[in-house]
Inverse folding.
RNA sequence: GCGCCCGUAGCUCAGUUGGAUAGAGCGUCGGGCUUCGAACCCGCAGGUCGCAGGUUCAAGUCCUGCCGGGCGCACCA
Protein backbone atom coordinates (compact mmCIF):
# COMPACT_ATOMS: atom_id res chain seq x y z
CA UNK A 1 0.00 0.00 0.00
CA UNK A 2 2.75 2.39 0.93
CA UNK A 3 4.46 1.63 -2.36
CA UNK A 4 1.33 2.34 -4.35
CA UNK A 5 0.84 5.61 -2.53
CA UNK A 6 4.36 6.78 -3.10
CA UNK A 7 3.59 7.65 -6.71
CA UNK A 8 0.71 9.99 -5.86
CA UNK A 9 2.17 11.33 -2.62
CA UNK A 10 5.64 11.93 -4.04
CA UNK A 11 7.33 10.56 -0.98
CA UNK A 12 9.52 7.58 -0.38
CA UNK A 13 7.49 4.43 0.21
CA UNK A 14 9.36 3.62 3.37
CA UNK A 15 8.53 7.04 4.77
CA UNK A 16 4.85 6.49 4.05
CA UNK A 17 5.04 3.05 5.55
CA UNK A 18 6.41 4.53 8.75
CA UNK A 19 3.53 6.98 8.97
CA UNK A 20 0.96 4.26 8.45
CA UNK A 21 2.69 1.99 10.91
CA UNK A 22 2.70 4.78 13.48
CA UNK A 23 -1.02 5.29 13.13
CA UNK A 24 -1.65 1.58 13.44
CA UNK A 25 0.32 1.38 16.65
CA UNK A 26 -2.17 3.71 18.26
CA UNK A 27 -4.93 1.14 18.04
CA UNK A 28 -3.20 -2.13 18.22
CA UNK A 29 -5.38 -4.13 20.56
CA UNK A 30 -5.25 -7.00 18.06
CA UNK A 31 -1.70 -6.54 16.89
CA UNK A 32 1.37 -7.87 18.56
CA UNK A 33 3.97 -6.17 16.38
CA UNK A 34 4.13 -3.68 13.56
CA UNK A 35 7.34 -3.44 11.61
CA UNK A 36 8.39 -1.63 8.50
CA UNK A 37 10.64 -3.47 6.11
CA UNK A 38 12.31 -2.11 3.00
CA UNK A 39 11.33 -1.07 0.46
CA UNK A 40 8.01 -0.30 2.08
CA UNK A 41 6.33 -3.34 3.50
CA UNK A 42 4.38 -3.10 6.70
CA UNK A 43 4.53 -6.35 8.58
CA UNK A 44 1.74 -6.94 11.01
CA UNK A 45 1.91 -9.66 13.58
CA UNK A 46 -1.44 -10.39 15.09
CA UNK A 47 -1.69 -11.38 18.70
CA UNK A 48 -1.43 -15.07 19.21
CA UNK A 49 -4.71 -15.51 21.02
CA UNK A 50 -6.50 -14.04 18.02
CA UNK A 51 -5.73 -17.12 15.96
CA UNK A 52 -7.57 -19.31 18.36
CA UNK A 53 -10.74 -17.36 17.77
CA UNK A 54 -10.81 -18.96 14.33
CA UNK A 55 -11.35 -22.31 15.99
CA UNK A 56 -14.29 -21.01 17.96
CA UNK A 57 -15.71 -19.63 14.75
CA UNK A 58 -15.40 -22.95 12.95
CA UNK A 59 -17.13 -24.71 15.78
CA UNK A 60 -19.87 -22.12 15.99
CA UNK A 61 -20.54 -22.09 12.27
CA UNK A 62 -20.24 -25.82 11.75
CA UNK A 63 -20.96 -26.77 8.17
CA UNK A 64 -21.55 -23.12 7.38
CA UNK A 65 -17.90 -22.27 7.90
CA UNK A 66 -16.40 -20.93 4.69
CA UNK A 67 -19.72 -19.82 3.28
CA UNK A 68 -19.86 -16.25 2.16
CA UNK A 69 -22.17 -13.74 0.59
CA UNK A 70 -19.77 -12.93 -2.23
CA UNK A 71 -22.28 -13.98 -4.87
CA UNK A 72 -25.08 -11.97 -3.23
CA UNK A 73 -27.55 -14.61 -4.32
CA UNK A 74 -26.92 -14.01 -8.01
CA UNK A 75 -28.55 -16.65 -10.15
CA UNK A 76 -26.11 -18.80 -12.09
CA UNK A 77 -26.97 -21.45 -14.63
CA UNK A 78 -24.25 -24.04 -14.90
CA UNK A 79 -24.57 -26.31 -17.91
CA UNK A 80 -22.22 -29.26 -18.11
CA UNK A 81 -21.61 -32.80 -19.35
CA UNK A 82 -24.37 -32.48 -21.99
CA UNK A 83 -23.03 -35.52 -23.82
CA UNK A 84 -25.02 -36.65 -26.84
CA UNK A 85 -27.31 -39.59 -26.09
CA UNK A 86 -25.52 -41.66 -28.71
CA UNK A 87 -23.37 -43.73 -26.40
CA UNK A 88 -22.07 -44.16 -22.88
CA UNK A 89 -20.16 -41.45 -21.01
CA UNK A 90 -16.40 -41.64 -21.33
CA UNK A 91 -13.49 -40.20 -19.38
CA UNK A 92 -13.70 -36.75 -20.88
CA UNK A 93 -17.31 -36.47 -19.79
CA UNK A 94 -16.27 -37.68 -16.36
CA UNK A 95 -13.81 -34.86 -15.99
CA UNK A 96 -16.40 -32.34 -17.06
CA UNK A 97 -18.82 -33.87 -14.59
CA UNK A 98 -16.33 -33.68 -11.72
CA UNK A 99 -15.41 -30.08 -12.51
CA UNK A 100 -19.04 -29.06 -12.93
CA UNK A 101 -20.22 -30.72 -9.76
CA UNK A 102 -17.44 -29.20 -7.70
CA UNK A 103 -17.93 -25.79 -9.25
CA UNK A 104 -21.64 -25.85 -8.50
CA UNK A 105 -20.93 -26.60 -4.84
CA UNK A 106 -18.16 -24.04 -4.72
CA UNK A 107 -20.34 -21.28 -6.13
CA UNK A 108 -23.12 -22.18 -3.74
CA UNK A 109 -20.67 -21.91 -0.86
CA UNK A 110 -19.69 -18.49 -2.09
CA UNK A 111 -23.27 -17.28 -2.01
CA UNK A 112 -24.43 -17.84 -5.56
CA UNK A 113 -27.78 -19.33 -6.39
CA UNK A 114 -26.78 -22.11 -8.75
CA UNK A 115 -28.91 -24.25 -11.03
CA UNK A 116 -27.36 -27.15 -12.91
CA UNK A 117 -28.51 -28.27 -16.30
CA UNK A 118 -27.81 -31.03 -18.81
CA UNK A 119 -28.54 -30.24 -22.44
CA UNK A 120 -29.73 -33.31 -24.29
CA UNK A 121 -28.65 -33.18 -27.88
CA UNK A 122 -31.39 -35.53 -29.01
CA UNK A 123 -32.10 -33.95 -32.39
CA UNK A 124 -30.08 -33.91 -35.54
CA UNK A 125 -27.58 -35.96 -37.39
CA UNK A 126 -25.77 -37.76 -34.61
CA UNK A 127 -28.77 -39.48 -33.03
CA UNK A 128 -30.06 -40.44 -36.46
CA UNK A 129 -26.70 -41.87 -37.35
CA UNK A 130 -26.75 -43.82 -34.12
CA UNK A 131 -30.25 -45.11 -34.89
CA UNK A 132 -29.21 -46.15 -38.39
CA UNK A 133 -26.26 -48.00 -36.86
CA UNK A 134 -28.62 -49.89 -34.55
CA UNK A 135 -30.87 -50.85 -37.45
CA UNK A 136 -27.90 -51.90 -39.51
CA UNK A 137 -26.96 -54.61 -37.04
CA UNK A 138 -29.71 -56.76 -38.59
CA UNK A 139 -28.81 -55.70 -42.05
CA UNK A 140 -25.09 -54.90 -42.33
CA UNK A 141 -25.22 -53.77 -45.94
CA UNK A 142 -27.20 -50.70 -44.86
CA UNK A 143 -24.61 -49.62 -42.33
CA UNK A 144 -23.94 -45.89 -42.51
CA UNK A 145 -20.44 -44.89 -43.42
CA UNK A 146 -19.57 -42.96 -40.27
CA UNK A 147 -21.82 -45.07 -38.14
CA UNK A 148 -21.48 -45.90 -34.47
CA UNK A 149 -19.87 -49.13 -33.48
CA UNK A 150 -19.33 -50.89 -30.24
CA UNK A 151 -21.04 -53.52 -28.17
CA UNK A 152 -23.75 -51.21 -26.90
CA UNK A 153 -25.07 -50.71 -30.43
CA UNK A 154 -25.45 -54.45 -30.82
CA UNK A 155 -27.13 -54.60 -27.41
CA UNK A 156 -29.59 -51.96 -28.43
CA UNK A 157 -30.38 -53.82 -31.64
CA UNK A 158 -31.00 -56.98 -29.64
CA UNK A 159 -33.23 -55.18 -27.17
CA UNK A 160 -35.14 -53.57 -29.98
CA UNK A 161 -35.73 -56.89 -31.63
CA UNK A 162 -36.92 -58.47 -28.39
CA UNK A 163 -39.30 -55.61 -27.72
CA UNK A 164 -40.68 -55.96 -31.21
CA UNK A 165 -41.12 -59.71 -30.90
CA UNK A 166 -42.85 -59.25 -27.59
CA UNK A 167 -45.16 -56.73 -29.21
CA UNK A 168 -44.05 -53.86 -26.96
CA UNK A 169 -42.77 -51.97 -29.98
CA UNK A 170 -44.17 -52.34 -33.46
CA UNK A 171 -42.01 -53.38 -36.37
CA UNK A 172 -41.11 -51.14 -39.26
CA UNK A 173 -40.18 -48.12 -37.20
CA UNK A 174 -38.85 -45.09 -39.03
CA UNK A 175 -35.32 -44.02 -38.35
CA UNK A 176 -36.60 -41.11 -36.27
CA UNK A 177 -38.65 -43.47 -34.16
CA UNK A 178 -35.69 -45.74 -33.61
CA UNK A 179 -33.64 -42.67 -32.74
CA UNK A 180 -36.17 -41.54 -30.17
CA UNK A 181 -36.33 -44.95 -28.55
CA UNK A 182 -32.59 -45.65 -28.60
CA UNK A 183 -31.51 -42.21 -27.42
CA UNK A 184 -33.88 -42.39 -24.47
CA UNK A 185 -32.39 -45.78 -23.58
CA UNK A 186 -28.91 -44.34 -23.74
CA UNK A 187 -29.96 -41.27 -21.79
CA UNK A 188 -31.18 -43.54 -19.01
CA UNK A 189 -27.76 -45.18 -18.95
CA UNK A 190 -26.13 -41.78 -18.76
CA UNK A 191 -28.36 -40.81 -15.85
CA UNK A 192 -27.47 -44.02 -14.07
CA UNK A 193 -23.77 -43.37 -14.59
CA UNK A 194 -24.04 -39.85 -13.25
CA UNK A 195 -25.88 -41.16 -10.23
CA UNK A 196 -23.02 -43.55 -9.63
CA UNK A 197 -20.84 -40.46 -9.73
CA UNK A 198 -23.08 -38.85 -7.11
CA UNK A 199 -24.18 -36.11 -9.41
CA UNK A 200 -27.62 -34.77 -9.96
CA UNK A 201 -28.90 -32.11 -12.31
CA UNK A 202 -31.66 -29.66 -11.57
CA UNK A 203 -32.93 -29.85 -15.10
CA UNK A 204 -32.59 -31.99 -18.21
CA UNK A 205 -33.21 -29.88 -21.27
CA UNK A 206 -34.25 -31.65 -24.46
CA UNK A 207 -33.24 -30.11 -27.75
CA UNK A 208 -35.91 -32.03 -29.65
CA UNK A 209 -38.82 -31.36 -27.32
CA UNK A 210 -38.04 -27.96 -25.89
CA UNK A 211 -36.43 -26.28 -28.87
CA UNK A 212 -37.78 -27.91 -32.03
CA UNK A 213 -41.20 -29.26 -31.07
CA UNK A 214 -41.99 -26.10 -29.14
CA UNK A 215 -41.09 -23.84 -32.03
CA UNK A 216 -38.38 -22.09 -30.01
CA UNK A 217 -35.83 -22.42 -32.81
CA UNK A 218 -37.96 -20.69 -35.42
CA UNK A 219 -39.00 -18.05 -32.90
CA UNK A 220 -35.41 -17.29 -31.98
CA UNK A 221 -34.41 -17.04 -35.64
CA UNK A 222 -37.41 -14.83 -36.39
CA UNK A 223 -36.32 -12.49 -33.64
CA UNK A 224 -32.84 -12.28 -35.10
CA UNK A 225 -34.24 -11.73 -38.58
CA UNK A 226 -36.42 -8.88 -37.36
CA UNK A 227 -33.38 -7.24 -35.83
CA UNK A 228 -31.39 -7.59 -39.01
CA UNK A 229 -28.93 -10.20 -37.81
CA UNK A 230 -29.86 -12.85 -40.39
CA UNK A 231 -29.32 -12.90 -44.14
CA UNK A 232 -29.66 -15.37 -47.01
CA UNK A 233 -26.80 -16.24 -49.28
CA UNK A 234 -26.04 -19.19 -51.58
CA UNK A 235 -29.34 -20.73 -50.57
CA UNK A 236 -28.42 -20.86 -46.91
CA UNK A 237 -29.46 -18.75 -43.94
CA UNK A 238 -26.66 -16.96 -42.05
CA UNK A 239 -26.22 -15.34 -38.66
CA UNK A 240 -24.27 -12.10 -38.94
CA UNK A 241 -21.99 -12.87 -36.01
CA UNK A 242 -19.22 -10.62 -37.35
CA UNK A 243 -21.29 -7.69 -36.06
CA UNK A 244 -20.32 -8.88 -32.61
CA UNK A 245 -16.67 -9.62 -33.17
CA UNK A 246 -16.73 -13.14 -34.60
CA UNK A 247 -14.27 -13.97 -37.41
CA UNK A 248 -16.90 -14.87 -39.93
CA UNK A 249 -20.64 -15.15 -40.29
CA UNK A 250 -22.18 -18.52 -39.51
CA UNK A 251 -24.73 -20.69 -41.22
CA UNK A 252 -27.85 -21.49 -39.21
CA UNK A 253 -29.84 -23.25 -41.93
CA UNK A 254 -28.12 -25.19 -44.67
CA UNK A 255 -28.93 -25.28 -48.34
CA UNK A 256 -30.75 -28.55 -47.82
CA UNK A 257 -33.09 -26.87 -45.36
CA UNK A 258 -31.66 -28.56 -42.27
CA UNK A 259 -30.79 -26.43 -39.27
CA UNK A 260 -27.23 -26.44 -38.02
CA UNK A 261 -26.42 -27.06 -34.38
CA UNK A 262 -25.88 -23.33 -34.08
CA UNK A 263 -29.59 -22.77 -34.69
CA UNK A 264 -30.45 -24.94 -31.68
CA UNK A 265 -27.80 -23.28 -29.58
CA UNK A 266 -29.13 -19.85 -30.45
CA UNK A 267 -32.58 -20.89 -29.31
CA UNK A 268 -31.22 -22.63 -26.24
CA UNK A 269 -29.20 -19.66 -25.08
CA UNK A 270 -32.05 -17.29 -25.80
CA UNK A 271 -34.13 -19.49 -23.54
CA UNK A 272 -31.48 -19.46 -20.83
CA UNK A 273 -31.17 -15.68 -21.00
CA UNK A 274 -34.93 -15.24 -20.89
CA UNK A 275 -35.02 -17.26 -17.69
CA UNK A 276 -33.28 -14.32 -16.06
CA UNK A 277 -29.94 -15.73 -14.96
CA UNK A 278 -27.24 -13.27 -13.99
CA UNK A 279 -24.57 -15.56 -15.34
CA UNK A 280 -24.46 -18.51 -17.70
CA UNK A 281 -21.57 -20.93 -17.37
CA UNK A 282 -20.96 -23.66 -19.93
CA UNK A 283 -18.40 -26.38 -19.52
CA UNK A 284 -17.08 -27.58 -22.86
CA UNK A 285 -14.39 -29.82 -24.22
CA UNK A 286 -11.34 -27.76 -25.11
CA UNK A 287 -11.67 -28.67 -28.77
CA UNK A 288 -14.74 -26.43 -28.89
CA UNK A 289 -12.88 -23.29 -27.95
CA UNK A 290 -13.30 -21.83 -31.43
CA UNK A 291 -17.00 -21.83 -30.72
CA UNK A 292 -16.88 -19.29 -27.91
CA UNK A 293 -16.83 -16.05 -29.96
CA UNK A 294 -19.86 -17.10 -31.92
CA UNK A 295 -21.86 -18.01 -28.81
CA UNK A 296 -20.91 -14.75 -27.18
CA UNK A 297 -22.03 -13.04 -30.38
CA UNK A 298 -25.38 -14.74 -29.89
CA UNK A 299 -25.58 -13.41 -26.35
CA UNK A 300 -24.82 -9.89 -27.54
CA UNK A 301 -27.29 -10.11 -30.39
CA UNK A 302 -30.01 -10.75 -27.84
CA UNK A 303 -28.99 -7.58 -26.06
CA UNK A 304 -26.85 -8.88 -23.22
CA UNK A 305 -23.21 -8.20 -22.46
CA UNK A 306 -21.11 -10.99 -23.88
CA UNK A 307 -19.53 -11.84 -20.55
CA UNK A 308 -22.96 -12.91 -19.36
CA UNK A 309 -21.77 -16.20 -20.82
CA UNK A 310 -18.60 -17.74 -19.48
CA UNK A 311 -17.13 -20.91 -20.87
CA UNK A 312 -14.87 -23.26 -18.99
CA UNK A 313 -12.81 -25.44 -21.25
CA UNK A 314 -11.90 -28.89 -20.06
CA UNK A 315 -8.89 -30.52 -21.64
CA UNK A 316 -8.60 -34.12 -22.68
CA UNK A 317 -7.83 -36.99 -20.33
CA UNK A 318 -5.03 -39.37 -21.25
CA UNK A 319 -5.90 -42.72 -19.82
CA UNK A 320 -2.93 -44.74 -18.61
CA UNK A 321 -2.54 -48.08 -16.96
CA UNK A 322 0.70 -48.49 -15.08
CA UNK A 323 2.30 -45.70 -17.07
CA UNK A 324 1.23 -47.14 -20.42
CA UNK A 325 -1.13 -45.30 -22.66
CA UNK A 326 -4.52 -46.95 -23.03
CA UNK A 327 -5.57 -46.27 -26.57
CA UNK A 328 -9.04 -45.02 -27.05
CA UNK A 329 -10.57 -45.36 -30.43
CA UNK A 330 -14.02 -43.90 -30.65
CA UNK A 331 -14.38 -45.13 -34.19
CA UNK A 332 -14.07 -48.75 -33.20
CA UNK A 333 -16.20 -48.13 -30.15
CA UNK A 334 -13.41 -49.23 -27.86
CA UNK A 335 -13.29 -46.27 -25.56
CA UNK A 336 -13.11 -46.79 -21.84
CA UNK A 337 -16.35 -45.68 -20.29
CA UNK A 338 -16.78 -43.61 -17.16
CA UNK A 339 -18.74 -46.49 -15.67
CA UNK A 340 -15.82 -48.86 -16.05
CA UNK A 341 -13.52 -46.37 -14.38
CA UNK A 342 -15.88 -45.77 -11.48
CA UNK A 343 -16.23 -49.51 -10.99
CA UNK A 344 -12.50 -50.00 -11.06
CA UNK A 345 -11.19 -47.11 -8.98
CA UNK A 346 -14.26 -45.72 -7.24
CA UNK A 347 -16.08 -42.43 -7.61
CA UNK A 348 -14.05 -40.61 -4.94
CA UNK A 349 -10.66 -41.35 -6.46
CA UNK A 350 -11.85 -40.58 -9.97
CA UNK A 351 -13.34 -37.24 -8.97
CA UNK A 352 -10.40 -36.14 -6.91
CA UNK A 353 -7.91 -36.96 -9.65
CA UNK A 354 -10.03 -35.13 -12.20
CA UNK A 355 -9.74 -32.11 -9.92
CA UNK A 356 -5.99 -32.23 -9.36
CA UNK A 357 -5.30 -30.11 -12.43
CA UNK A 358 -6.59 -26.90 -13.81
CA UNK A 359 -9.50 -27.74 -16.11
CA UNK A 360 -7.66 -26.27 -19.05
CA UNK A 361 -4.62 -28.47 -18.86
CA UNK A 362 -4.25 -32.01 -20.09
CA UNK A 363 -4.53 -34.70 -17.48
CA UNK A 364 -2.91 -38.09 -17.25
CA UNK A 365 -5.20 -40.50 -15.46
CA UNK A 366 -3.44 -43.66 -14.43
CA UNK A 367 -5.87 -46.41 -13.48
CA UNK A 368 -3.28 -48.33 -11.46
CA UNK A 369 -2.30 -45.24 -9.52
CA UNK A 370 -5.91 -44.28 -8.87
CA UNK A 371 -6.53 -47.71 -7.40
CA UNK A 372 -3.46 -47.71 -5.20
CA UNK A 373 -4.08 -46.96 -1.59
CA UNK A 374 -0.76 -45.29 -1.07
CA UNK A 375 1.02 -42.00 -0.84
CA UNK A 376 1.02 -41.69 -4.58
CA UNK A 377 -2.71 -41.36 -4.49
CA UNK A 378 -3.70 -37.92 -3.19
CA UNK A 379 -7.30 -38.94 -2.49
CA UNK A 380 -6.32 -41.33 0.23
CA UNK A 381 -3.86 -38.88 1.66
CA UNK A 382 -6.60 -36.36 2.35
CA UNK A 383 -9.23 -38.88 3.35
CA UNK A 384 -6.74 -40.54 5.64
CA UNK A 385 -6.22 -37.30 7.51
CA UNK A 386 -9.95 -37.14 8.13
CA UNK A 387 -10.19 -40.78 9.17
CA UNK A 388 -7.18 -40.39 11.40
CA UNK A 389 -8.87 -37.69 13.45
CA UNK A 390 -12.00 -39.80 13.63
CA UNK A 391 -9.91 -42.67 14.92
CA UNK A 392 -8.29 -40.42 17.48
CA UNK A 393 -11.66 -39.51 18.90
CA UNK A 394 -12.69 -43.14 19.00
CA UNK A 395 -9.64 -43.93 21.11
CA UNK A 396 -10.25 -40.87 23.25
CA UNK A 397 -13.73 -42.16 23.98
CA UNK A 398 -12.36 -45.60 24.84
CA UNK A 399 -9.88 -44.15 27.29
CA UNK A 400 -12.49 -41.81 28.69
CA UNK A 401 -10.48 -38.75 27.85
CA UNK A 402 -12.71 -35.72 28.32
CA UNK A 403 -13.48 -33.76 25.17
CA UNK A 404 -14.01 -30.05 25.66
CA UNK A 405 -15.88 -27.50 23.66
CA UNK A 406 -13.81 -24.87 21.93
CA UNK A 407 -15.01 -22.21 24.34
CA UNK A 408 -13.80 -24.20 27.36
CA UNK A 409 -10.32 -24.85 26.09
CA UNK A 410 -7.29 -23.13 27.56
CA UNK A 411 -5.43 -22.07 24.45
CA UNK A 412 -2.39 -20.76 26.25
CA UNK A 413 -1.02 -24.28 26.41
CA UNK A 414 -0.67 -24.37 22.61
CA UNK A 415 2.59 -22.51 22.61
CA UNK A 416 4.40 -24.21 19.75
CA UNK A 417 4.78 -22.65 16.29
CA UNK A 418 3.35 -25.89 14.93
CA UNK A 419 -0.03 -24.97 16.34
CA UNK A 420 -0.21 -21.82 14.28
CA UNK A 421 0.96 -23.67 11.19
CA UNK A 422 -2.16 -25.74 11.52
CA UNK A 423 -4.54 -22.92 12.39
CA UNK A 424 -3.49 -20.38 9.76
CA UNK A 425 -4.78 -22.37 6.80
CA UNK A 426 -8.07 -22.81 8.62
CA UNK A 427 -8.36 -19.05 8.88
CA UNK A 428 -7.62 -18.73 5.18
CA UNK A 429 -10.28 -21.20 4.15
CA UNK A 430 -13.14 -18.73 3.63
CA UNK A 431 -10.96 -16.53 1.44
CA UNK A 432 -9.90 -19.57 -0.55
CA UNK A 433 -13.51 -20.50 -1.20
CA UNK A 434 -14.20 -16.98 -2.42
CA UNK A 435 -11.20 -16.71 -4.72
CA UNK A 436 -11.68 -20.19 -6.15
CA UNK A 437 -15.34 -19.47 -6.82
CA UNK A 438 -14.56 -16.14 -8.40
CA UNK A 439 -11.91 -17.68 -10.65
CA UNK A 440 -14.18 -20.67 -11.36
CA UNK A 441 -11.28 -22.93 -10.40
CA UNK A 442 -12.23 -25.77 -8.08
CA UNK A 443 -8.78 -27.35 -8.37
CA UNK A 444 -7.44 -24.77 -5.93
CA UNK A 445 -9.45 -26.42 -3.23
CA UNK A 446 -7.89 -29.76 -4.08
CA UNK A 447 -4.44 -28.31 -3.53
CA UNK A 448 -5.51 -26.62 -0.34
CA UNK A 449 -6.81 -29.87 1.09
CA UNK A 450 -3.60 -31.70 0.28
CA UNK A 451 -1.64 -28.99 2.05
CA UNK A 452 -3.91 -29.00 5.08
CA UNK A 453 -3.76 -32.78 5.30
CA UNK A 454 0.03 -32.64 5.13
CA UNK A 455 0.13 -30.22 8.02
CA UNK A 456 -2.16 -32.40 10.04
CA UNK A 457 -0.10 -35.53 9.40
CA UNK A 458 3.11 -33.73 10.32
CA UNK A 459 1.62 -32.36 13.52
CA UNK A 460 0.19 -35.72 14.41
CA UNK A 461 3.53 -37.39 14.06
CA UNK A 462 5.37 -34.74 16.00
CA UNK A 463 3.02 -34.27 18.91
CA UNK A 464 1.24 -36.67 21.09
CA UNK A 465 -2.43 -35.94 21.53
CA UNK A 466 -3.79 -38.48 23.99
CA UNK A 467 -2.27 -39.75 27.21
CA UNK A 468 -1.14 -43.35 26.85
CA UNK A 469 -3.30 -46.15 28.16
CA UNK A 470 -2.51 -47.08 31.74
CA UNK A 471 -0.48 -50.21 31.03
CA UNK A 472 1.75 -48.29 28.66
CA UNK A 473 2.53 -45.51 31.03
CA UNK A 474 5.31 -47.27 32.93
CA UNK A 475 7.75 -47.82 30.12
CA UNK A 476 6.89 -44.62 28.33
CA UNK A 477 10.11 -42.98 29.38
CA UNK A 478 12.46 -45.49 27.86
CA UNK A 479 10.96 -45.68 24.43
CA UNK A 480 12.56 -42.88 22.59
CA UNK A 481 15.98 -42.99 24.09
CA UNK A 482 17.87 -44.13 21.02
CA UNK A 483 16.24 -41.92 18.49
CA UNK A 484 18.36 -39.20 17.04
CA UNK A 485 15.29 -37.81 15.43
CA UNK A 486 14.54 -34.21 16.07
CA UNK A 487 10.81 -34.66 16.19
CA UNK A 488 11.20 -37.64 18.49
CA UNK A 489 13.39 -35.62 20.77
CA UNK A 490 10.86 -32.87 20.92
CA UNK A 491 8.05 -35.27 21.60
CA UNK A 492 10.07 -36.81 24.38
CA UNK A 493 10.59 -33.50 26.08
CA UNK A 494 6.96 -32.55 26.01
CA UNK A 495 4.89 -33.22 29.04
CA UNK A 496 1.35 -33.97 28.13
CA UNK A 497 -1.10 -32.34 30.50
CA UNK A 498 -4.87 -32.84 30.40
CA UNK A 499 -5.24 -29.23 29.26
CA UNK A 500 -2.87 -29.82 26.36
CA UNK A 501 -4.72 -32.96 25.33
CA UNK A 502 -8.00 -31.09 25.41
CA UNK A 503 -6.63 -28.22 23.34
CA UNK A 504 -5.08 -30.49 20.73
CA UNK A 505 -8.18 -32.61 20.43
CA UNK A 506 -10.15 -29.48 19.86
CA UNK A 507 -7.67 -28.22 17.29
CA UNK A 508 -7.85 -31.52 15.43
CA UNK A 509 -11.60 -31.59 15.47
CA UNK A 510 -11.69 -28.22 13.75
CA UNK A 511 -9.13 -29.24 11.14
CA UNK A 512 -11.23 -32.31 10.50
CA UNK A 513 -14.32 -30.16 10.08
CA UNK A 514 -12.64 -28.05 7.41
CA UNK A 515 -11.36 -31.13 5.56
CA UNK A 516 -14.86 -32.56 5.61
CA UNK A 517 -16.23 -29.27 4.41
CA UNK A 518 -13.76 -29.08 1.51
CA UNK A 519 -14.17 -32.69 0.45
CA UNK A 520 -17.90 -32.10 0.48
CA UNK A 521 -17.51 -29.29 -2.02
CA UNK A 522 -15.41 -31.53 -4.26
CA UNK A 523 -18.10 -34.16 -3.99
CA UNK A 524 -15.73 -36.62 -2.34
CA UNK A 525 -16.65 -38.57 0.77
CA UNK A 526 -14.94 -38.03 4.12
CA UNK A 527 -14.74 -41.49 5.68
CA UNK A 528 -14.57 -42.16 9.45
CA UNK A 529 -12.48 -45.28 8.83
CA UNK A 530 -10.60 -46.56 5.85
C1' G B 1 -1.64 -18.25 -42.90
C1' C B 2 -5.20 -16.45 -38.84
C1' G B 3 -7.14 -17.27 -33.77
C1' C B 4 -7.12 -19.52 -28.74
C1' C B 5 -4.40 -22.28 -24.86
C1' C B 6 0.24 -23.83 -22.92
C1' G B 7 5.96 -23.65 -21.88
C1' U B 8 7.92 -23.24 -13.92
C1' A B 9 12.87 -28.84 -10.41
C1' G B 10 14.61 -35.30 -13.88
C1' C B 11 8.73 -36.29 -14.44
C1' U B 12 3.51 -34.46 -13.44
C1' C B 13 1.88 -29.85 -11.92
C1' A B 14 0.50 -25.46 -8.18
C1' G B 15 1.61 -20.38 -7.76
C1' U B 16 -4.73 -16.78 -4.41
C1' U B 17 -5.78 -11.43 -10.15
C1' G B 18 1.82 -7.30 -9.83
C1' G B 19 4.79 -8.05 -3.93
C1' A B 20 9.84 -9.98 0.07
C1' U B 21 14.15 -16.00 -0.23
C1' A B 22 9.28 -19.36 -6.73
C1' G B 23 6.26 -24.23 -3.92
C1' A B 24 3.96 -29.48 -3.76
C1' G B 25 3.66 -34.66 -5.31
C1' C B 26 6.33 -38.45 -7.78
C1' G B 27 11.29 -40.07 -8.80
C1' U B 28 16.84 -40.35 -6.70
C1' C B 29 19.61 -40.71 -2.09
C1' G B 30 19.49 -41.19 3.40
C1' G B 31 16.69 -41.72 8.03
C1' G B 32 12.21 -42.94 11.31
C1' C B 33 6.88 -47.71 13.82
C1' U B 34 7.11 -51.26 21.41
C1' U B 35 2.66 -45.42 21.89
C1' C B 36 -3.14 -42.13 19.28
C1' G B 37 -3.88 -45.80 12.40
C1' A B 38 3.53 -46.15 8.86
C1' A B 39 -2.57 -45.42 3.69
C1' C B 40 2.21 -41.64 7.85
C1' C B 41 6.63 -38.55 9.03
C1' C B 42 11.76 -36.19 8.69
C1' G B 43 16.12 -34.82 5.84
C1' C B 44 19.50 -34.10 1.30
C1' A B 45 19.87 -32.89 -3.74
C1' G B 46 17.33 -30.60 -7.71
C1' G B 47 15.53 -23.62 -10.95
C1' U B 48 18.58 -18.28 -16.06
C1' C B 49 10.14 -19.63 -14.46
C1' G B 50 11.23 -21.37 -23.21
C1' C B 51 14.33 -16.96 -25.43
C1' A B 52 14.83 -11.55 -26.18
C1' G B 53 13.03 -6.83 -25.31
C1' G B 54 9.39 -3.48 -22.80
C1' U B 55 5.99 -1.33 -18.74
C1' U B 56 6.73 -0.84 -13.19
C1' C B 57 9.58 1.08 -7.03
C1' A B 58 8.49 -4.34 -7.90
C1' A B 59 7.18 -9.37 -13.32
C1' G B 60 6.52 -16.64 -13.09
C1' U B 61 2.20 -13.12 -13.27
C1' C B 62 0.96 -7.43 -17.72
C1' C B 63 2.64 -5.81 -23.24
C1' U B 64 5.49 -6.90 -28.00
C1' G B 65 8.45 -10.19 -30.98
C1' C B 66 10.68 -14.83 -31.73
C1' C B 67 11.30 -20.44 -30.58
C1' G B 68 8.76 -24.95 -29.21
C1' G B 69 4.08 -27.91 -28.23
C1' G B 70 -1.44 -28.58 -28.28
C1' C B 71 -6.17 -27.28 -30.31
C1' G B 72 -9.38 -24.76 -33.49
C1' C B 73 -10.26 -22.20 -38.34
C1' A B 74 -17.44 -26.63 -41.71
C1' C B 75 -23.60 -25.48 -45.08
C1' C B 76 -20.04 -31.88 -38.77
C1' A B 77 -21.75 -32.38 -33.55
Amino acid sequence: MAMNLSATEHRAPQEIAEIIAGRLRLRSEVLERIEVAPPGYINLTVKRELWFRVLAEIEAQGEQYGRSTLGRGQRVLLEFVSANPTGPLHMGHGRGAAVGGALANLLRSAGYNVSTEYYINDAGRQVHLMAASVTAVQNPTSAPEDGYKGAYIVDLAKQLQEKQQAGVLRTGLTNSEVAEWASSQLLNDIKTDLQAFNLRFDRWFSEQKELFNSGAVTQALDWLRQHGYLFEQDGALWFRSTTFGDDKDRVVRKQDGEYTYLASDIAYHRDKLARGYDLLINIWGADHHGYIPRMQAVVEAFGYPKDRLKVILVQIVNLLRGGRRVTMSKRAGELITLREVIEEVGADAAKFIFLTRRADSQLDFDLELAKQKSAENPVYYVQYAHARVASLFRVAAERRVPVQRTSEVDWSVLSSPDDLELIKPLAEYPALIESSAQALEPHRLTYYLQDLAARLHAYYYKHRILPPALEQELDNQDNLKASAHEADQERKRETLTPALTAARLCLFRNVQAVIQNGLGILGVSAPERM
Q: What stands out?
A: The first helix of chain A runs from residue 2 to 9. The radius of gyration of chain A is 29 Å.
